[in-house]
Amino acid sequence: MKILVAVKRVIDYNVQIRVKEDGSGVVTDNVKMSTNPPDDNAIEEAVKIKESGKATEVVAVSVGEEKAQETVRKALAVGSDRGILVKAEGMIEPLAVAKILQKVVEKEKPDLVFMGKQAIDDDCNQTGQMLAALLNWPQATFASKIEVKDGSLEVTREVDEGLETLEVNIPAIVTCDLRLNEPRYASLPNIMKAKKKPIEQINASDLGIDTKPRVEQVKIEEPPKRKAGIKVASVEELVQKLKNEAKVL
Amino acid sequence: MSRETMEYDVVIIGGGPSGLSTAIKLKQLDQNLSVCLLEKASEIGAHILSGNVFETRALDELIPNWKELNSPIKTKVTSEKFLFLGKTKSLSWPTWLLPSVQQNHKNYIISLANLCRWLAEQAEAMGVEIFPGFPANEILYNEDGSVRGVATQDMGIDKDGNKKDSFEPGIELLGKVTVFAEGCRGHLGKQLIKKFELDKGKDPQQYGIGFKEIWEIDEKKHNEGLVMHTAGWPLDNNTYGGSFMYHAENKQIFLGYVIGLDYKNPYLSPFDEFQRFKTHPAIKKIIEGGKRISYGARALIEGGHQSLPKMFMPGALLVGCDAGTLNMPKIKGSHTAMKSGIIAAETIVEHLKENKDLSIFKEKFEKSWLYKELYEARNVKPSFGWGLILGIIFTGIDQILFRGKLPFTLRHKHADHETLKLASEMPKIEYPKPDNIITFDKTSSVYLTGTNHADNQPVHLKLKDPKLPISYNLEKYDEPAQRYCPAGVYEVQQENGSSKFVINSQNCIHCKTCDIKEPSQNITWVTPEGGGGPKYGNM
Q1: Domain extents for chain A?
Q2: Tell me, what's the ipTM?
């Protein structure tokens, strides 16, 4: 069984995001970039399945600029066998990514496609679902537990009401939740070995995919600053303020 | 437990200007040397913080065609100002009356973090293996006592010291020569200085704490290329320090403050002095209407020539500010750190090829312009022990009339942890509350550093005696850690009527001030899990 894992290069979750002054986007120059956190869980799960003998190959794929190679390299350092980078410049919307991944799936013929449930930069939470539709494959989203059965997967999902367990036939798409596992560290020797693993580079345009955005981005701005709170002396004062000032009672 | 080992010709600890220069020079001298460089930050540059007005002398030697290689050295210094601040007034000092070491017209305003990122690209292209996110936390020795290499930190240890599922053991990196380039107060460098008595016969090392904020300001007030320094207010005559304001590219200014850690009043809060400094009319008018986008702090070396330890030992070299090569009157340490790295590389190649002893470093160093610079600068910092005014007068005589060639050397008498006076003998200092426009509190400042340490790991700020902060420091000095830490790591909390010392180690921005200033030397800074600490951008 072969597992394809999609990984995205995003601004590191510790970095305080700064909006560009002209409202055209956020500042990325000299900002620490990392793998989208739930994508790390997706890689970890794929590698674990391989280590348990139920998969034979893990292929990491990323879509983005040349530097996204670092993200693929990181996936190789934690146990993926080889990598693919589909190069595309500028903002690439989930639909374009899904179409690119569709082409990669047609070429690589994996049995499973894993990815994070959403990316922490645009929070779209669409790519996995769109890919499932394009391929007409079953999908299990927000996976917090995955069990590989014969020809199918049993996936536990994190939903509002609690946990939902469902079974999907292979081939399938699974999008992963942070609770799925604890991603391992890349060890120094494995980082060294990862430098020698192959990364195939493809241009998105060569796949015949138009990555031009379909949604017009009007403006990006910072949320308004939260006002400082006040202390009230008594319950009466609180109720009075909620009634008269906040007008919520 | 046996650890995996990896062998190299040279292992370098630290990806700052000195370590990267060592790596690049080694590869230039011999392409076939295997060189690896460890960096504790999550990426090169993420723990680098510096003013920085950059003198290109060492870079001109190392990479003469740097201008053609898209280096991030773009903003030439175009004008200079020096202000003496009173509480509300300011007096501009004519720059022609400044010693030549303080004149910057040939220099550039840069982000040292970006320069390091660029140097790392050059080094990697030459075949240096760079591993960010891997702190070296242990020195390995041969049976004859010489340095054999380092071990990286185990990863995946919980706060009680147990292995987590994600446990990944450290690796032993063995080098024919190991170069320690950790920067000011490196935690391994500190151990080496002690073990090999590298500071024997030297004055105690002197340190400062430097703050930096990056502001985006109104175009009309921005003057790209302007370098401004101040002395005076808010510090008193007996506290050593001053500010910098560099107008960089993209409407940004690099605004900072440096305070000598030999200050005496335990109530002094370096962070709050810096915040208060910004309210001076001469400063406020420039940043008003602007936006603070970065904050950070880092200890720096101020001891210079008198405090510089021996930089070689069996199997290893100490370079840059891990030893202490900063030139204090110039307020510059980058070019000197780079030069020390270049000399280290030359030493290592002769050592490996011609079997010469590493002690040839001394001769090469003493013949270099670096030594001459540090020697001529030696009397400036100690003269400020007499106060700001006498210090300035003496510095004028020493640097302008005698150009550092006076036939005597002033000494540094005390280590910085010895200078605090008892709280009962010193005046309390009331700092104004932050307005969240010009001045800020520590919490919102630390937030801008992006610092983080994976939770559930051992505390990396070790107390030799856990009772001391309350039983001794609180009583004698009102526990100064609450104030000298620029990140709010240390707190004294009241619990059921008794005081409790709290260490918020996840806030730590790796400045090392606590390791330096703690009056009983009770705090030891050790490396946290790899990748932890600030995520500085263009600091």
Answers
A1: 2-222
A2: 0.85
